[in-house]
């Protein structure tokens, strides 16, 4: 729905937190239904929830349509995304890469230290719960610093927390690091989306957030390729090197100063906040 500018920060944090809640509850719920019966009830519930969400979305209020003067041409929109939103889109690419590394490198890392690779599912549940708590904490107050720097800093902290899991062959270390990293996941997603919203005028938000989702997906796919190439050299190497690549990209971005956002009191459509789960 349309959101007052003062409520934008907590609203986007709540949106991301609800997404993390779905990631936490849904796998356990589906597994429980399969265990009690078979896969058909789980699929039926998924279909019912999807239909309910689609019907509910029809009741959401919409912003007034842009006039001809407000609606940029395709060429102008492309230039706008390239010049204004490139830092945020680059952050989406690196964030998606980090999420892909987490998903694809943790199971073989567990296997290499003598633990069951299936334990990754438990760790990812802990990661999602921690992310939910972190998102709530992030949305409860305003934090110092420009929002773009907040997004980069949160990503760097997340990577720093994960790095010991890639370097130390110990199940407790891997478990603690993966779960603790989740505390910074939802706040990073929220800050990234707020940064993009500040980069662009309202008429370009739809294209901007679509590009952010695409950048996140491209980064996730590249991470799977990178981990797969490095995996024959060792699971810990395949985990650590991509994380260090992400951290290098984040450090470079931290020292790039994007142009200050234009002052605006526009409303923002809620639901554009999440920008994709970090592990999508």
From TrEMBL:
Pfam families: MFS_1. The lineage of its organism: Bacteria, Bacillati, Actinomycetota, Actinomycetes, Kitasatosporales. It comes from Actinacidiphila polyblastidii. Keywords: Membrane, Transmembrane, Transmembrane helix. The chain crosses the membrane at residues 81-101, 113-139, 173-191, 212-231, 237-255. This is MFS transporter. InterPro entries: MFS, MFS_trans_sf. Residues 260-280 are annotated as: Disordered. PANTHER family: MAJOR FACILITATOR SUPERFAMILY (MFS) PROFILE DOMAIN-CONTAINING PROTEIN (PTHR23542:SF1), PTHR23542.
